[in-house]
Amino acid sequence: MTVETGSEGGREGLFVSLKNLLATTIAIGKTRAELLVTEIEEEKYRLMSLWGKAIGAALLLTIGLIMAVLCIAFMFWEQRVIVFGVFAALFIVGGLWLVASLRRQAAQPSKLFRASLSELEEDMVQLRRRGSRQV
User: Fold this and answer.
1) Which residues of 19-33 are buried (b: 16+ CB within 10 A; e: fewer)?
2) How sure is the predictor about 121, in pLDDT bands with cuts at 50, 70 and 90?
3) How many domains does the chain have?
4) Which of 71, 78, 101, 109 has its Cα between 20 and 30 A from that of 124?
């Protein structure tokens, strides 16, 4: 039978503890990276869908507005300058309203990575709790 000294057993326990800590850190990092990749892919698909719908809607609305303006201009052919002027003013006001809306939306913070950041914050809290217990 061999008898272990206290220092050798403590050293092995320290290495096992460090190995477990490293494995846990790598597992946490892997999980967070997977969550980050998932969020990026979801945001990419959402943006592609939004852009596709926005472009399609803009195209159809533009064609519809042009057709409506031409119909009104033909109905009031004698006052066509006034008709085109009024609709030009309406289009400019609508465009300025959209620019203001875009500026407001661009000023708002992005929600991208919010779940990842909250999970990382929770991990930091738990690591601090464990660190204060072991000391």
Assistant:
1) eeeeeeeeeeeeeee
2) confident
3) 1
4) 109
Could you tell me the two tokens for 135? 């000391």
CA-to-CA distance for 61 and 38, rounded, in angstroms? 34
Please report whether residue 86 resides in a domain: yes
List Cα–Cα distances, 115 to 24, 33, 88, 120, 124, in angstroms: 20, 12, 45, 9, 14
Q: CA-CA distance, 63 to 101, in Å (whole number)? A: 23
Q: At what angle do helices 114-134 and 6-75 cross, to 10 degrees?
A: 160
- pTM summary value: 0.51
Tell me whether residue 1 is in a domain.
no
What residues make up the domain containing 39? 6-134
Structure tokens that stand for 87 in this block? 């609709």
User: Tokens standing for 11?
Assistant: 């050293």
